[in-house]
Write a structure and sequence with these properties.
Elements: H1 5-40, H2 45-49
Length: 55
């Protein structure tokens, strides 16, 4: 089975998508840890997460 340039391009595109997802997950984890640290230091939930919208 010959592997052509189209295969390489699609595979590289998939890798780029996965790297984008990886970055977003890492940022989400970092933000969550920062919020947890703020709560542990005594900040209120409203200060950390904002006031929830009224229904």
């Amino acid at each position: 089975m010959a592997i052509d340039q189209d295969f390489f391009k699609k595979f590289e595109d998939q890798i780029l998508v996965l790297e984008g997802i990886e970055k977003a997950v890492q940022e989400g984890i970092r933000d969550a840890k920062q919020k947890l640290d703020r709560i542990k230091k005594g900040e209120s939930m409203d200060e950390v997460f904002g006031v929830p919208p009224k229904k």
